[in-house]
Amino acid sequence: MVNAQDWLNQNYPNETREQLTELDVSNKNLEGVLTVWDTWGFANIQKLNISFNKITSLDFRGKLLEILDLSNNHFNGGFLISGSSIKKFNFSFNNINNYEIILPSLTHLDCSSNPLINLNLLSSKNLVELKCLNVPTLSNLSLNYSPSLKYFDCLGAKLVGLDSFSPSSTTSTETMTVSTAATSLATNVSEKLNAGEVSGIAIGVAGVLVGIVTLWFTSDRFKTFAKKSLSFLFCCVVFQRLCRNRTAATGSDMNLDILDSVNISPNPAIAVDNASSEQLDYDK
Q1: Alpha carbon 210 to chain centroid distance?
Q2: Which pTM was predicted?
């Protein structure tokens, strides 16, 4: 393992730092504490990526940073971020329990796979995408309504409280409803599975339904495809019925023609009488 601060100082001396707009130290087998200050020469950093290391603490100070990736590290809440311009923030796959994010310009957040219990996003009113996948411990999410929110996925989280959220947009309401319904369904199925009340087939069907509903509300392409498929299916059903009625009508006419050609009456009683008369003539 390599000390993160020592590695940074050795590979980025002071005279080279001012010209940097992107700092990528991902997957370098780094550990420990990392400090990146604008007063130390990193004044123009717009993108910082320290993912796939074993860093436990970060102290960043800068005014131009827009993209920050801390994913796949050993953070447990030990990072200080000073920068109001951050738009995309990823701290997935860490060990963070409680976190209050004060980033007013934030648009994209990924906090998946953390043992989060409380997540406070009240200061972030411009969210477009929020991912909290695989966070079964998350029970309380504080979130202001964002008119631009298009993607919200907390599947697997057992949300008890969703504070300060009052949507008026149809799209955001539908997205939120899908996520809540999927979470409730997953929890309900899990409980029934443990009680032995749900079979594997039922779970599979439920999963397919949840997937279809989620795609319906989150994907415009799927909506278009589904509508065209349903229209095609409807036309096929109508065409099949028309063909069936036509075949039935044609079949009745053909049966009557055959009966007439062999001089057999369609009435069974008359047919029996004719057969009896012919038998008497033969005996004579």
Answers
A1: 10
A2: 0.60
